[in-house]
Amino acid sequence: MSAYADERPGRGRRARPGRGRWALAVVIVAVPLALALLGPLFAGAPGPRATSFTLGGGHWLGTDFVGRDVWRQILLGGRPVVLTALAATALAYLVALPIGLIAALTHRGWLEELLMRPLDILLAVPSLLLILLVATVFTPGAAGLALLVALANIPDAARLVRAAAAEAASRPAVEAMRMQGETWWRMGVGYVGRSILRTLAADAGIRLTGVLYLVATAAFLGVGVAPDAADWAVMVDRNRTGLFVQPWAVVVPALLIVALTTGGNLLFDAALDRAGRPETKDARPEKKMGKRT
Amino acid sequence: MTPVRSWLARRLLLGAAQTVAVVLLVFALTEALPGDAAVVLAGDQPDPARIAAIRDTMELDRPAAVRLLDWAAGLAHGDLGTSLVSGRPVNSYVADGFGPTLLLASLTVLFLVPAGVGLGVLAARHQGRLVDRAISTVTLGVYAVPEFALGVLLVTVFALRLGWLPPTAVGYGTDLLAHPAALVLPVLVLLSRPVCSLARMVRAGMIEALASPYVAQARRYGIHGARIRYAHALPNAVAPAAQHLARTVDWLLCGVIVVEALFVIPGLGTVLMNAVAERDVPVVQGLAVVFGVVTVVLNIGADLVTRGFAPRAEVTA
C-alpha cells in the first residue's frame, strides 16, 4: 500500500518545487469531490422513466439501463463511495490504534504476541477475497461493506501503529514518565500517541486511497450495494451493456472515479511534501515486518 | 542452526500457520450462517427437496468438528468438495478456470518486471528532471485507480472509438493464446497498478544506491557507468522492491477477478464470482483455499528472492 516510503527529506536532491503537483492534484480532485459532497443537494426529484440507453430528450447525459437520467444518478452516486471509504478508514484506525499502542507500550511479551501474531496471519488473506467470502453467505449493505473493508485494513494499520509507537515508546521520556508513575493514558495517548500523529496522518492519506479502491471495486462486483443503486461504481457495471449505444452512462462515472483516486493520491503526496515527510521508513510493514528478525 | 536455516524454518512455519488460518477462516464461514445453513443457502427456492439436497451435500447433520476434519483431510488429498448447484466436484471448476487465469497472471508478471524496473531505473537516472517528474507523477496517480474504471475507459477508446482491439473476450472460449488481440487490454489493465508501485520502489532504491559510498568508490576505480548501475546498484535497489512485489500479489488477485468480470474471460475469477452469485458455498470455499494458499506460497517465494538479492536486508519470519 505504500508508495511514499521512497522519498525522505535530506536524502537525494529534491529539485521539484512541488507547487505544480499541488495545483494539478487540487484541479483533478475538485470536480469529483464537489459532485460527491454537494451533488445530492442539486439532484432534485426523480423525473419519469424514459427508454433505456437513449441520448437527448431533455437528458443531458442520456438515460441509463432502466431509463433514469444519467446526470441525476451522477449527482447522487458519489456520496456513497466517499462516505463508505471515510467510514471504513475511520473504523480501521478505531480498532488498529488501541491494538498497536498497547502492543508497543506493554512490557509483557506474551501480550504483544497475542495482539500482533494473529494479524500476521490475517495478512495472508487477500482483502477482496475476504469481502467476497462474506458476501457469499450474507448480503452486506453499505455499513456492512464499510465494516468489511475496515477489517481488511486492520492488520496492516495495526502493524504500522505498533512500529511507529514502538520507536516513541523506547524514548527516555517514556521511561521517565513510567518511573514518575504516570498513568497509562498519559503515556500511551498523551505522549506516544501524540508523537506518532505525523506518521499516522501520512498513512491515513495513503490508506484512504487504498480503501477507496476497495470500496469502488467491491461495489463494481455488486457487494454491499443494491443492483440499481445510485453509485458511480454500480453505474459503470450496470450500464456496460449499453456501452455501444450510450457510452456516457459508463464513461462519466468511470472518469469521476479515476479523477477521485488519482487526484486524491497526488493531493496526499503533495501535502506530505509540503508538511515535510515523517521518518516513515522503519514504520512501513514492507520494510520491516515486526521487530524480531 | 545457522541464522539462514533458522530464518527459513521460521518463515516456513509462518507460512504453514497462515495456510491453516486460511482453511479455518474459510470453514468458519458456513458456521457463521445464521440459523439453518441449508435453509439460508436455498435462498430464493426454499423447496424442501432442495434444502434436503443441500443438507445432504454439505453433511450439515454431522458435528462441525467432524466436517472440518473431513474437509481438511480432503484438501490435503487435493479434493476440494462438491458443488451445491451442479453436483460436480469443485476440482473440475478449478481445472476449467485455471488456464485463462494462469495465462493472464504469467503474462502480467512477464511484462511487469521489465516495465517496472525499466521505468524505475529511467526515472532514477534522470532524477529531478522532466522525465523523472513525469514518471513519478503518472505512476503516483495511476497506482490508485481501480482496474474496472481504467478498464472501461480503455475499452471505450481502443475498442469503441478506434476499433483496434476487441472489447471483450466473448466467443474465444478458454483458448485465448490463439487470439492475442483479446489479451492486450486485460493484461494492460492488470499491469497498471503493480507497474506503478514497482517503478516507484525501484526508483527510490536506485537513487539511494547510486548515492551510496560503494558506488562512489566504484566510480573512483573508474568502473564503467553501466556496470555500476546494473551490476552493483540495481541488485540492492531491487531487494526492497521484490519484498514489495509479494504484497502486490494481493492486488493481482483483486485485479484478476475484476479483469475477468470486465472482459468476460472464463477464468477462476469468473468461476468465483458466479459461485458467489449462486451462493455455491463449497465452490467459493474451495477457490478461496486455492487463492489463499497461492498467496502464501508466493509471499514465501518473494521473501526468498529478497534474501537472495540482499542477504543483509531484514526479512522477518
UniProtKB/TrEMBL annotation, chain B:
GO BP of this protein: transmembrane transport
Pfam families: BPD_transp_1, BPD_transp_1_N
Keywords: Cell membrane, Membrane, Transmembrane, Transmembrane helix, Transport
Domain ABC transmembrane type-1: 98-306
Domain of life: Bacteria
Record field: transmembrane: 102-123, 135-164, 176-196, 251-277, 283-302
A GO term from the CC aspect: plasma membrane
Subcellular location(s) per record: Cell membrane
Membrane topology according to the record: Multi-pass membrane protein
Family note: Belongs to the binding-protein-dependent transport system permease family.
Protein's UniProt name: ABC transporter permease
Organism: Streptomyces malaysiensis subsp. samsunensis
